[in-house]
Specification:
16% strand, Rossmann fold, 2 domains, 10 helices, alpha/beta, two-stranded antiparallel ribbon, DNA polymerase, domain 1, 47% helix
Length: 215
């Protein structure tokens, strides 16, 4: 049984897709850019919100406009990030069971740090011990920087910690930190992508994640 679990947020614990899409399209409209579909936004997620906006704006958009578009997204998202967002099925019972078992938890996300803290407080009060987002570039996954920070704060190590995520970025992040990775199939990427990037375990349900953590 593991002592600590580090979770990705978007696509792993929370379905944030609709709120991200709405804020992206709000920013695009501000600059008269074409809006993006839900599936396009889904495919752009994984490397943080700056990269999400870069992928969402038209090719050839100049850096100054890119920055202004990101700021418009950021303002809107911080006000509306909980409009449609919800935990995936089984996540709350999973986190409660980990708490009862004495297993520490962290979130390491490429979202803005303030958004990560706010979402964890809103949806998982007292269930996430260490919420970490990106405050500076060196913290952006697949850098393991925040994974190491989380383990330090959880007083855990690579032997007793496991990572749970939904994308190739998560698999790479876990492996750079010398952690095993559970890839979940309900998020923003599919099982084939997780397997192609040598994910250690695959889980189709929250109960399967729990079984892998407790075994």
């Amino acid at each position: 049984m593991y002592k600590a679990v580090i979770f990705d947020l978007d696509g792993t614990l929370l379905d944030t897709l609709d709120d991200l899409r709405n804020s992206v399209n709000y920013a695009l409209r501000e600059f008269s850019f074409p809006e993006r579909s839900r599936e396009e936004i889904r495919s752009f997620i994984g490397n943080g919100v700056i990269k999400l906006m870069e992928r969402s704006t038209p090719d050839g958009t100049d850096p100054v406009t890119q920055k202004k578009c990101f700021e418009a997204f950021r303002r809107h998202y911080l006000e509306h990030m909980s409009d449609n967002t919800a935990p995936y099925k089984g996540i709350i019972p999973l986190l409660k069971r980990l708490k009862r078992e004495g297993i520490s938890t962290a979130v390491v996300s490429n979202k803005l740090h303030s958004a990560v803290v706010g979402l964890c407080e809103d949806y998982f009060p007292s269930l996430i011990d260490v919420p970490l987002g990106v405050a500076e570039e060196k913290e952006r996954k697949p850098s393991p920087h925040n994974v190491y920070k989380a383990m330090e704060r959880l007083s855990s190590n690579t032997e007793n910690t496991i990572y749970v995520g939904d994308s190739n970025v998560d698999v790479e992040t876990a492996h750079r930190a010398d952690l095993k990775c559970i890839g979940v199939t309900w998020g923003f990427r599919d099982k084939d992508e997780l397997l192609a990037h040598s994910c250690d375990f695959i889980a189709d349900t929250a109960d399967e994640v729990l079984s892998l953590i407790l075994k």
